[in-house]
Design goal:
about 30% helix; four-stranded mixed β-sheet; Topoisomerase, domain 3; single chain; alpha+beta; elongated; Gyrase A, domain 2; about 750 residues; Topoisomerase II, domain 5
Amino acid sequence: MPKKKQPEENRPKVNNPNVMGLHAAVVEQPITDTLELNYMPYAMSVIVSRAIPEIDGFKPSHRKLLYTMYKMGLLTGARTKSANIVGQTMRLNPHGDAAIYDTMVRLSKGYGALLTPFVDSKGNFGKSYSRDMSCAAPRYTEAKLTAICAELFRDIDSDTVDFVDNYDNTMKEPALLPTTFPNILVSANSGIAVGMASQFCGFNLKEVCDTTVAYLKNPQCDLTQTLLAPDFPTGGELLADPAALSEIYETGRGSVRVRAKYRYLKSENLIEIYEIPYSTTVEAILDKVAELIKAGRAKEIADMRDETDLSGLKLAIDLKRGTDPDKLMAKLFKLTPLEDSFACNFNVLIAGAPKVLGVRQLLEEWTAWRTESVRRRVYFVMKKKQDKLHLLKGLKRILLDIDKAIKIIRETEEESEVIPNLMIGFGIDQIQAEYVAEIKLRNINKEYILKRVNETAALQDEIADLEDTLNDPRRVKKILVDELYAAAKKYGEPRRTTIVYGDNLPVYQEETEVEEYPVHVFLSKEGYLKKITPASLRMSSEQKYKEGDGPSQSFETTSAAEIMFFTDKCQVYKTRLSEFDDSKASVLGDYLPAKLGMDAGESVVWAVLPGADYAGTLLFFFENGKVARVELKAYQTTSNRRKLTGAYSDKSPLVKILRLDAEQELAVYSTEPRCLLFQTALLSPKTTRTTQGVAVMTLKPKYHLCDVRPVEETPISNHSRYRVRAIPAAGALLRQEDTEERQMGLLD
């Protein structure tokens, strides 16, 4: 039987008080010490060096990757395998190849997460709008830097930014990238730190550059004039809310709503969705629509599928017959991620400290930082030219006596004494002497030295100009403006996200189930409406009216039908009969001006049931002899609007309104009295509600049109006497036999 292993008595014991879990006993530690020793270092590490972007618009992972690609010569060279890039980046980023490759994917053109991608990708990099379309392995894909990266690394070797040691102190890397435009506002960026987060929306590059120029010229400028709204790479429609945008611009916090774009293909009876909000995915939309169909809340949809291909995003929705696509999309916008909000949290690191800044504050910080970078670049160039000038001044000293310099060198026995002897012989310093001593033998001719010396005057002028630039803030500002204009001109693109305003959008309001049953509707001349069931009407069919009132119109329809009321103020009120209680013939009914909230003194003149499809047209007859033929669809709205102004023209008093479902012959009367018969086919339909119409009856002064009726409802026996083939026409004088007592007109 094997012996039981005995504990090693001489083994050193660990007694580190800061390391927990190594002791059998419970160690008591104040919560403040735990936070100080364990929590705070980790939290600050995540905040400062991982999750929050800095003023150049990059997080450390982005910056390390792009700088590595720049040093690999991928700004101008050919693409290389992504695995090669990942391997090289690990010299700066020790977090593993998977994390580095994920970073590259999100910066790539193929992934489509940025308005201005920085990685020119080849191969399958997945898509930002799909959680299931994953990227290929790095051994299968290739990448290089895009052209706009030239704006990220311009003059990076001219001391424009500080360089720091990498994680193991074997290399140098830039602390920031000297971007020539405010990339912090152009590139969408998100990060989750400890106790805080950051969420930047993207803005259009040209708009950002124009806004920055405007800010440089006037720090108190109106940002909304040039920076219209966020712009997203997936497009869509941004619902403009001036108050929300103003809050984001001022505080750096807020949200904007974005909805998908779609088109209706009538021939196939389907809806194609080709742009979706940036904050959602195709799978999330499909899952939510499937839930609605399963719950019976989207009965209009026959099928929905993902038809995304190489041409781009496409979601197809097959509709059932008779479905209104606009109403359906309004419902889907309300109930699915096809309309989503993007929350903004402009949290950025400024001098190593996280701050939530508005757009104006971000521009202030960026311009201050970029101004310092430009000044450092100018100083670097000036210092180089000063050093060159210093060397040329030393060269000038030996111009008149080259032979002396050669003699000094030849007569010096030891090499280490050459520099000191030249310094003594010509009165120059060590740097100048080193330069003179390194001149090639072929270049000690007089011509060469004179050419070099003649550069002195030009260098002095250039140095003076650079010194003036350093001392003149206006010149530095002009450099910034020129760089911004150049970037906008070279890399600017049109907006992808369309800005729309809420007043022009349909609003879906989920309707409650309304019991539908047959009803009779009666409208009086004074504007009283009664909705009576057939059973109640059979019990008592005698209608009660106020004194002086009487019947005007009556309909047989259902309780859920829509009805429109035209008034004498050129307005129309839309409602449903379900909003009226069932009544009896023995009561007066609902008074419409009060029920519908009409204006003071406004009264109903006519009512119509438009039907579900708003088929047919309306004829408006005016006293001046004109008739307007307006399609019922002109009164159809996608929103739940109850009142429409400009229901018909107000240029002449209205005489009568008729609904026309099929062409027919009408008789028009004037006060002369005259009459004419004409076919309604002579009137062309209009979509504009306020159209004045066309002249049908020419009238003499002091006379006006007074009535209109279908021919079959008139006592006229000789139709040919009054019939006309073309309009306008005067008509014929009424004969005695054609002027029997007629029914009173609606507006009489």
